[in-house]
Specification:
This protein has 205 residues and is an all-beta fold. The chain has two domains: 98 residues, Sandwich (Jelly Rolls), CATH 2.60.120; 76 residues. The chain has no helices and 18 strands. It has an eight-stranded antiparallel β-sheet with strand order 8-9-5-4-11-6-7-10, with no helix packed on it. A four-stranded antiparallel β-sheet has the order 3-18-13-16, with no helix packed on it. A four-stranded antiparallel β-sheet has the order 12-17-14-15, with no helix packed on it. A hairpin with a 3-residue loop joins strand 4 and strand 5. The chain is globular and about 50 Å long. It starts with a strand and ends in a 6-residue tail after the last strand.
């Protein structure tokens, strides 16, 4: 079973293309998963306020907080909401979140629900993977209780890794068992998450 990544380049007046192929015994497909739209608000001393009525966040929800600084995207991940009112949520850093440090009070933010996509993948078998969203988003590969790889996804730009070719050095995933992808929309629009992987699951006798 083949996986193929085709890319076209136009850089410095030179145009060329690339085709990368990997073969494995098993293919994994992630059908479109909807990442719910984030909700706009402002940073407050105790959390986020100026949320619209009916924002949909509840105490104990685990969410991502998105914002930008001079065009650079930032994200505070796995923020646990302590309390919610009609137009605000409160939280502290217990349990501890991860990612970028939250910005100053009054900063425009987007608060998004995390979506959990279940996996059962042996990292030793990975030959290639690719993921894509229609809108800006973030995603992380998890192995049990450990986050292994985090990525900020740009709208319509694929994020990929190929063994012995693209991205991380070989051995990065050795000995790991991937259990889920955690993702969220970085904007106030819902977005579709899709992806796939090729796995070399053959075991010699």
């Amino acid at each position: 079973m083949d996986g193929i990544i085709r890319e076209s380049y136009d850089i410095g007046g030179i145009s060329f293309s690339s085709v990368v192929r990997r073969t494995g015994e098993t293919a994994l497909a992630i059908s479109p998963v909807t990442l719910r739209a984030g909700v706009a608000g402002k940073r407050s001393a105790s959390g986020i306020d100026t949320l619209p009525t009916g924002h949909g966040f509840l105490a104990q929800d685990v969410c991502d907080v998105h914002w930008s600084v001079d065009g650079a995207r930032k994200c505070r991940r796995a923020v646990t909401i302590d309390g919610a009112t009609a137009n605000a949520v409160t939280f502290d850093d217990n349990p501890a979140a991860s990612g970028d440090t939250l910005p100053a009070n009054g900063t425009d933010l987007v608060l998004s629900h995390q979506e959990h996509i279940g996996l059962d993948v042996d990292g030793d078998t990975l030959e290639m993977f690719a993921f894509r969203t229609d809108g800006d988003a973030v995603m992380a590969l998890w192995a049990g209780v450990s986050e292994v790889q985090f990525a900020k996804l740009t709208a319509k730009e694929a994020y990929s890794w190929v063994k012995e070719h693209i991205g991380l050095s070989d051995g990065t995933f050795a000995g790991l068992s991937f259990t889920e992808i955690v993702a969220s929309s970085a904007t106030t629009q819902a977005t579709q998450f899709v992806g796939g992987a090729i796995l070399d699951t053959f075991t010699e006798a």
